[in-house]
Write a structure and sequence with these properties.
Shape: elongated
Helix content: 10-25%
Radius of gyration: 14 Å
Number of strands: 0
Order of helices and strands: H
Length: 54
């Protein structure tokens, strides 16, 4: 991936060094859409491969 591609500037700065796989993101979406997350309010759930942690 180069800097001209979408996400090309972010991926090199992400500790995991790659984009997320659909399955990695869909698990959190399924959790939030399901009954197990009924008590989750105002949470900041980050799925970014460690980008925010640096």
């Amino acid at each position: 991936m180069n800097a001209d591609e979408p996400g090309g500037g972010v991926v090199p700065r992400t500790p995991l060094g790659r984009r997320a796989d659909v399955a990695e993101v869909s698990g959190m979406i399924a959790y939030l859409a399901g009954p197990d997350s009924a008590f989750v309010t105002g949470a900041h759930l980050v799925i970014d491969g460690g980008f925010e942690a640096g």
